[in-house]
């Protein structure tokens, strides 16, 4: 058995064990990467080592983690989501997410895949919207996520964000406006952070 085959089998076995027992904590995905990455350093430099790392990332994302009970797994990214129907203002909703699972925040949307997954989760739930993690309360017009990263991907409703009455927090909604373009078309809107809404948490 050559070294590359040994590494592949070892990674597969480790991840099958992880998949069998699921995540025991929120950091399980990261720990899978670290653990299998430590094994990859024994592969020869070059293609063998690169392939080992590639296999590690793919397997850990797909197989190493199931979410905490009551959370929804995105198998493409390893992220977990939960819907909180309790109505809270934005800051309270953010604190509530953090209290549910270590490292959980109001949902961060990095790309269209995240957006589409979130829409699939929330579509059809009768409400005026859900808090997401974006805010420009620190600097008007500079939207950031709870992890401090800038909001680069966006999916705003037409004419949004408009900051009417100092609206500094991000919600996703389909039906809070009478404009026909916003009906059955779930996109983003800025809102007063003190308004109370359900929310979507993510880790």
- Per CATH, the architecture of the largest domain is Roll
Q: Could you give the distance between the termini? A: 39 Å
From the alpha carbons, calculate the radius of gyration and give it in angstroms.
20 Å
| Morphology call | elongated
What is the class of the largest domain in the CATH system? Answer: Alpha Beta
Number of extended strands: 7
Kindly state the mean pLDDT as a whole number? 79
Largest sheet: 4 strands, antiparallel
**Number of structural units classed as domains:** 2
Describe the protein's architecture and organization:
The protein is an alpha+beta fold and 203 residues long. It folds into two domains: 3-63, no CATH class; 72-202, Roll (Mannose-Binding Protein A, Chain A). 35% of the residues lie in helices and 17% in strands. It is built from five helices and seven strands; from the N terminus they run H-H-H-E-E-H-E-H-E-E-E-E. The chain has helices at 3-21, 28-40, 47-63, 90-100, 112-122; strands at residues 72-73, 80-88, 105-106, 130-135, 169-173, 187-191, 197-202. It has a four-stranded antiparallel beta sheet with strand order 1-2-7-3, with helices on one face. A three-stranded antiparallel beta sheet has the order 4-5-6. Strand 1 and strand 2 form a beta hairpin. Helix 1 runs antiparallel to helix 2 and helix 1 (3-21) packs parallel to helix 3. The longest helix has 19 residues, at 3-21. The model is unreliable at 3-24 (pLDDT under 50).
């Amino acid at each position: 058995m050559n070294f590359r085959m040994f590494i592949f089998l070892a990674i597969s076995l480790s991840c099958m064990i992880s998949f069998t027992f699921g995540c025991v904590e929120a950091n399980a995905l990261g720990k899978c990467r670290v653990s299998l990455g430590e094994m990859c350093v024994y592969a020869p430099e070059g293609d063998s080592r690169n392939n080992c790392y590639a296999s590690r990332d793919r397997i850990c994302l797909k197989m190493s983690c199931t979410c905490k009970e009551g959370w929804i797994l995105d198998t493409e990214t390893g992220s977990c989501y939960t819907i909180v129907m309790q109505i809270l203002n934005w800051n309270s909703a953010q604190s509530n997410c953090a209290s549910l699972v270590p490292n959980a925040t109001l949902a961060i949307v990095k790309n269209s895949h995240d957006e589409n997954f979130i829409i699939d989760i929330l579509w059809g739930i009768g409400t005026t919207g859900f808090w997401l993690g974006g805010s420009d309360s620190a600097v008007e017009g500079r939207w950031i996520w709870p992890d401090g990263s800038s909001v680069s991907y966006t999916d705003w409703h037409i004419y949004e964000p408009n900051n009417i009455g100092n609206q500094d927090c991000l919600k996703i909604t389909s039906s809070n406006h009478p404009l026909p373009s916003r009906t059955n078309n779930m996109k983003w809107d800025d809102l007063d952070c003190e308004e109370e809404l359900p929310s979507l948490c993510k880790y």
